[in-house]
Amino acid sequence: MLERLEYTLKAGIGGAGAGFAGAGGLSFIPSLSVSLTIAGAMAVSSALLFSVYVYRNI
Fold it and tell me: pTM (2 decimals)?
C-alpha cells in the first residue's frame, strides 16, 4: 500500500512538471500568451490525471 502511495505522489509531481512544461512550450507561440493562472491550471490538471492513472494501474 505504501508503494502505491509513493508512486502516486511521484506521478503527481511529475504531472505538475509536465503541465508547467506544456505551458512553457505554449509560450513560444508568439500569438498565444499563457498567464500564470492558466499554467497553474494545466499543472494541477495534469498532476491529477497522472496521479489517478498511476493509482488505478499499479
Answer: 0.80
